[in-house]
Amino acid sequence: MTAIRVCGLTKRYGSFEAVRGIDFEVPPGEVFGLLGPNGAGKTTTVEILEGLRSRTSGKVAVLGFDPAVQVRALKERIGVCLQATNLPDKITVREALEFFASFYPRPASPRELLERLQLWERRNTFYSKLSGGQKQRLALALALINNPQLLFLDEPTAGLDPQVRLEIHNLILELKEARRTILLTTHYIEEAERLCDRVAIIDHGKIIAMGTPAEMQARAVDHSRIEIRLEQPLSADCAPVASEAQIQWNQERTVLFATSLQPTRTLIELVKWLEQNGASIADIHLQRPTLEDVFLELTGKRLRD
Amino acid sequence: MRSYWAHIRIHLKLTFRDRLVVFFNYVFPLLFFFIFAQVFGSSRSAAFTQVVSMVLIIGVLGNGFFGAGIRAIQDRELNILRRYKVAPITPTPLLLASIITGWVNYLPMALLVLGLSHFGFGMAFPANWISLLAFLSLGIICFRAIGLMIASVVNSAQEGQILIQLFYFPMLLLSGATLPFELLPAWAQRVAQFLPASYLCLGLQGILLRGENLAENWQAVLALAITTLAATFLSVKLFRWEKEERIRGTAKLWLLAGLLPFLLLGAWEAHTQNSAAKVRALTHEMRRNQIYLIRDARIFTGDEVVDSGAVLLRGGKIIQLWRGPAPPAKTLHAELIEGAGKTLLPAFIDAHVMFQGEPSSRDLAAYLYCGVAAVGVSGDLPQTPQGELGAELVQAVSSSEGVYVSALTAAEMEDASAAGGNAIVEDSLVQQVAPAGVLEEWKRRVAGSAGAGGSHLQRASQKLIQAWKAGRALAAASCAGFPPLVHGPGIHRELQLWVKAGIPAHRALAAATAGNAKLLGLGDRMGRVAPGYDATLVLVNGNPLTAIDATENIAAVFFKGERVIRSELLERR
Is B65 in contact with B25 (CB distance < 8 Å)? Predict the structure, then answer.
């Protein structure tokens, strides 16, 4: 059974159309990323799927339930990690988990969860005394308390420092290993590249591209960039041979730039040619197109503005 | 059910961990209690119930408006409720947990205050303590629900603060909990009739002071119960998990719907004035709890004279009579009334007066003003107006073989109107008591009549002397109510005429006090200055035993332990 099926989803607030016809499906066990700038309609879409908001039109099935109708059945089976939520200051980690466990018919063991998320040591600490990373791990633990079949992670690493972000990434990768279905929204490109099986890029309430991160990169019109630094300048009269590549030199002819649709082949050809011409290579740098490039190309704007 | 229990448990834990809650719920009311108990409690016991009800009601208001209302708004503003939104729960357990937590939190404080008042400050233990706790519980639950309802209709913390203060301050100041109700201007009293806290205060004081139960406060109980249900229902229906979900401004009108029972009750009270009457009754009850020591006074006990003695009044009764010097007032926790040069007597009783139709409260107040605490009424006994201070009404006696009822005043009036005299108008108490219109009318009538003086008084005086000599029981009556004899001062004139007729002063005074009390069936509690009797007394300047018209020179009137403020008696109506 498909975990999520969305067909022609729209959401209108007065005259403003936040979501303008979105379609996608998420099969079980997949980590699906919704990527887009702020205000693109990501959160609205996700909240409709979670049963928190009504939709204007379209068909939606989450775990086979209609989130506008079978809200309770749905909420019992999904785990949600919302952005910008808080817990009371003076609730301890363990109490929070036990409290939320009481909402569900068959909750997971709070102790196991805390141990898995490395919060057992902090179980008697008040929420207000936790660090940002610990708070986010607790939020994940709360999202997992009902053994959810489907996990919604809305900007799970927003506002965290890089080390903590890495920590959370590893946790999500663990969940991915365990074949959990996850819908993740983010505006961090690396996050999507690292964690998602597939991503959809949303802008102005519409999906403008969808596929695996690799497919998306391949779709980039921009070529991969190759940069080769030499120890001595190369004599001006020899021209490099490389198929389907554009080549440029810097003025001193110590650095060679190439863009190519088949960067591996181009690189091998260039290296061979340089050696034949007696150049000694100091450094090689190959840069593949990123989702950021794809995004920039598709939307004309950067993600994090 | 599991979820309800979990909500209550966590809510309680969080509440008790919150230092602000502990401060406002326990430290603050107790500080208040001790300060006010020191000010009022130890030296003036009367105000002590006021202190207790004030602390209890401040607790209810704070707990409801801040503990439930502000807290609920904060939980939403801080995005705490947002986290619950994605769980399969409804607002109902959340809100019910808040209400129950408030109650669990409040009750120990209430018990502590009541316990301290009893054991530390000697307040009588409330007779209807079950009613008291039930009423307080209903109050706290209702105000929690009102707090939550306010939280449900506001869109921001700021809006919430403003709205809650708008509810809190009027209820704090006008409900009678802090400022005594009678000190409020008329408009404020009218506003107070629409405030739930007024009924809470009224019910609480009624239970504490008058030993009332829940059933006697059924209007307040019903209004509190309906408001609780309505406010809870509205707070569930209008509940929002997120600050981003805004509610339209007109939703605030739902507050009026939630408070409708009190608006209706207020309108009804404005019509019937029931609660206003009860407030006055409570005020009297409170004044009655004052302890007084009247010392160094000549005391006429009803049959004998103590040349210099003292009495202690408490709880509406005469506690002790000293035939000599009394201990210092301080050691008795009493307010001292110096009686040197004055005479203390049992309040007078008029054996026979007449009302045309229902007695007005002004007439009954006029009696009290003149030191008359009970009157005998001929015919069917009319209803005493509720809550007003005034003379008691009992069945009049009529002359029979054993009893001779003398009303020389009436005889004198007949003569005077025949003679065109104005003996009664010159009487000082009559001038004080009679409404101006009546006085003018009387003067006109007397001036218009002609002819020689009659002999009614002379004949009546002779009959009185005969009855006295025959050893019959004598009842002193003024026959007030027969126009133009005004209600109130008649008994004083009657006494003067008795003495003029030849009855010894102490015999006349005994007839107007102990004698009349016995004949009217009040003898077991009125008419005597003796321990166990009602503290219903008159203190006059001078010595009526040697100069009978001294009875008109009244220094103080006590009615069932309450020192009557005479200047207010006639003014109010």
Answer: no
